[in-house]
Amino acid sequence: xxxxxxxxxxxxxxxxxxxxxxxxxxxxxxxxxxxxxxxxxxxxxxxxxxxxxxxxxxxxxxxxxxxxxxxxxxxxxxxxxxxxxxxxxxxxxxxxxxxxxxxxxxxxxxxxxxxxxxxxxxxxxxxxxxxxxxxxxxxxxxxxxxxxxxxxxxxxxxxxxxxxxxxxxxxxxxxxxxxxxxxxxxxxxxxxxxxxxxxxxxxxxxxxxxxxxxxxxxxxxxxxxxxxxxxxxxxxxxxxxxxxxxxxxxxxxxxxxxxxxxxx
Length: 264
Known about the structure:
Number of helices: 5
CATH topology: Ribosomal Protein S5, domain 2
CATH class: Alpha Beta
Shape: elongated
Order of helices and strands: HEEEEHEEHEEEEHEEH
CATH superfamily: GHMP Kinase, N-terminal domain
CATH architecture: 2-Layer Sandwich
């Protein structure tokens, strides 16, 4: 506890002086590396390194039944797993509340942006395509939301769409040969901010997250804010919120460019 208190005081003192442990500006991301096609047996995959945070996303597409209230739409399912190798705080077992929140926030941003046209996943009565996006945290050093969203969006953007062939009572899913890409309408990204005392910073690392009072994740596409998720008990003012949305639109250009380059 004493060590954490020293670290927290140090971080707050740096922020008062307008800097951070790694020398970044308050509205600057850590270095980002994005690689796609890392899982040969997945329809799409991506690995994101955001500073020391490392996340992998894989996309698998199969055939299933539609939801009863959406009989003409396909299904999109997002899951997240905090692997024990990523942090001493992660354990094996059922999904933790943190993993469930991570998956839901990433799913909400992608879904609200209309990144996948679920009506376009309809096959025939009683059969639709199901798009599974699985996110694995390989190493934790803060800001899993933006790393996870970027990995998921890149994996989806580069995913190959299987073919469905029906022959009487039998059907086949073709995953090899000449396959087109999964149809993507928009590109969703997110920017996560931490409030520490009176300072607000983009892309908090692990030390910064350990002493933040509030967290805000803003998901958007090119033109519209699509979703927001606030965490912890602290608050953001209206003026701060307006400023953070402006930063989000500016910084998300960098994230979309990474995805576009990965698709090339």
